[in-house]
Amino acid sequence: MKKTLISLLVAGALVLALSPNVEARGNPAASGSTLSVGATPVPHAELLNLISADLAAQGITLKVVEFTDYVQPNVALIAGDLDANFFQHIPYLETNEEWSAKLISAFGVHIEPFGLYSSKYKNTADLPNGASIAIPNDPSNGGRALLLLQANGLITLRAGVGLTATPRDVTGNPKNFRFQELEAAQLPRSLQDVDAAAINGNYALEAGFNPLKDSLIIEGADSPYVNIVVVQKGKEQDAKIQALQKALLSQKVKDYINGKWSDGSVVPVF
Fold this sequence. Notes:
The chain is 39% helix and 23% strand. By secondary structure, the chain is an alpha/beta fold. It has helices at residues 2-26, 41-50, 52-56, 72-79, 90-93, 97-102, 139-151, 187-190, 201-206, 211-214, 239-248, 251-260, and strands at residues 33-39, 60-66, 84-89, 103-111, 115-117, 132-136, 156-157, 170-172, 178-182, 196-199, 217-218, 226-232, 267-268.
């Protein structure tokens, strides 16, 4: 009898010890799991914080790590310091061979139309001959800026140059614009030193601009530069990433975007 009681107690202890592991195997997004996502503050981190409680209800603790540049979030993701990041578009991801080899888009969320801004001039017709134009210094966004200028008749680019055009690809420049390539996050602060600057939507929002009202020219909502959630290759089907996708591509998030950015400065793609 005594031996039987001891056996039962040991068996019970084993069941209790093994139960959490059994639950985790059956539900990888089980209680106690943490999802670390790197993001630029606006609107990416803001949207992530919006769904934090929704993920918590599924047992997932969302940790939002804010970055103010476009390089470190990918470096941290490759290093395994993050589970995902949310700040970039596919053309940017593909500018770096290591990034494109190791990372992949899990899903797209929204577009932030890219615009040209000035603190000195109200429209592009007023830009003087020899005006200084600041553009992002990374290949994809620098090309995006030049394509925006070309689409509005301000410059002409070499035929077939594609999304990674550089100032060297400018073949027509009627007003002799001088291009200054700066780190994207610095562009809003450069406006006092240049005649105009082509600024990414998230940095324009952070600087307090209303892209539709304050920009001289702006991309249309059909822009190919969809902002994506990126993960390490092979992890796009992980339960936590699937839960993140469901939460971010929800009606709640769509309504929030359409309500807060009803001016079209952030456009959902779902």
